[in-house]
Amino acid sequence: KAGVTQTPRYLIKTRGQQVTLSCSPISGHRSVSWYQQTPGQGLQFLFEYFSETQRNKGNFPGRFSGRQFSNSRSEMNVSTLELGDSALYLCASSLGRGVYYGYTFGSGTRLTVV
Amino acid sequence: GQQLNQSPQSMFIQEGEDVSMNCTSSSIFNTWLWYKQDPGEGPVLLIALYKAGELTSNGRLTAQFGITRKDSFLNISASIPSDVGIYFCAGQKVWYGGATNKLIFGTGTLLAVQP
């Protein structure tokens, strides 16, 4: 059974550019959540999607956005990149909402902004 | 951003020793999770706790959900070199608007095991 797949694994972008990250959940999982991990702030919740709808959003600026497709795959977009956006971006998938369903993380996308 | 208080920040131990770490919060949580993260990888779930006072084991790992619902503990017995990594606690707050997958993570405990 394939796990959560995040692409690309590594990305280098320049300040001011935008970036799109992709997350393919475990087959059958309908919920995808995104987290940002940095040495200073640790793991911070970005947003949660279920059935193509954003259900919850963390405390991040509007430059961070996401969406979920009908096959449950999700993308997140960061516009007008800043140096501080350099981080490991993790997505996690779940059968449904609520941790009783289990919550599996992908290996992440390492974004470096120069 | 919000983080749970996790201690100790790091531990350097000899193989075979037992390890304890804990996580505290000023808020009540209805679920506590413990994860391990290896370098360059995503966190992997070790133990999930769903009820105050619950004590759960997974092999050499034992975790407890504090009765106040504001803390949790993880113990690792007879540590081995592959236990090396960063351990995170994570909590899910009481949510009256329905289920949610939002987790609040601890600051992490770096564990180093010397053979």
Number of helices of chain A: 0
> Can you tell me the overall shape of chain A?
globular
Number of strands of chain A: 11
Order of helices and strands of chain A: EEEEEEEEEEE
* Helical content band of chain B: under 10%
Mean residue pLDDT of chain B: 92
Derived structural class of chain A: mainly beta
Task: List the helices and strands of chain B in order.
Answer: EEEEEEEEEEE
Largest interface: A-B, 31 and 27 residues
Spatial gap, N to C terminus of chain A: 37 Å
For the sheet with most strands of chain B, the description reads:
6 strands, mixed
Number of strands of chain B: 11
Low-confidence stretches of chain A: none
Structure, explained:
The complex is a heterodimer of chains A (114) and B (115). Chain A has no helices and eleven strands. The model of chain A has no long low-confidence stretch (mean pLDDT 94). Chain A is mainly β. Chain B has no helices and eleven strands. Chain B has strands at 5-7, 10-14, 19-24, 29-37, 44-49, 55-58, 61-65, 71-76, 85-93, 104-105, 109-114. In chain B, strands 2, 4, 5, 9, 10 and 11 form a six-stranded mixed beta sheet that branches. A five-stranded antiparallel beta sheet of chain B has the order 1-3-8-7-6, with no helix packed on it. The chains are: A mainly beta (114), B mainly beta (115). The interface between A and B is medium-sized, with 31 and 27 residues.
Question: What would a concise description of this structure say?
Answer:
The complex is a heterodimer of chains A (114) and B (115). Chain A is mainly beta.
Structural features:
heterodimer; A: about 110 residues; mainly beta; 4-stranded antiparallel beta sheet; B: about 120 residues; 6-stranded mixed beta sheet; 5-stranded antiparallel beta sheet; 11 strands; about 55% strand
